[in-house]
Write a structure and sequence with these properties.
Elements (H helix, E strand, L loop, with lengths): L4 H15 L4 E7 L2 E6 L2 E7 L2 E6 L9 H22 L5 H26 L14 E2 L1 H33 L1
Antiparallel strand pairs: 1-2, 1-5, 2-3, 3-4
Helix pairs in contact: 1-2, 1-4, 2-3, 3-4
Amino acid sequence: MWQRIQTLYLTLAIVLNLLTLVLPLWRYDAGTQMEALSGLQTIAYVDPNSSQSMWFFSHPNSIKSAANTTFVLLVFAAAAVLTYGIFLYTKRPRQIQMAYAGLFILLGQTLSLVLATRQEPDFIGGATDVGRPEIGFLFIPVSIVLTWLALTRIRKDEELVRSVDRIR
């Protein structure tokens, strides 16, 4: 199972996807104030000397809570589907279906993150720009590419097995 390259691709995609929960995804700046979004929390720095961290789910005025909840659920769903797909290495057609399902979940995760970041920041006022992506935002497209690479390798394995079956 681990000697197959598609298993390594899927494992790396799962790890990068789960890292989006803790790494900063998006950042808003307004003068000396800064607000950084990650999958599980929002960190607002009002000034460089003090910091305040609040969980998205506990802030009553958060407009992004529904989009963020969707994002977190999709992260866990993609991780579960791709992990299940890793253990289907003997049933390649089913593994291909799980990889496609994981790919669509990752695309939905991207959409929910874009919807969450297109709104105003919750804790700081006066942010003039839309914000900018942080390192965690890059991990989602990388996870999509890794899942696609794994999918192509699974298909090649299936074609190889079918050609060997024809020879027999």
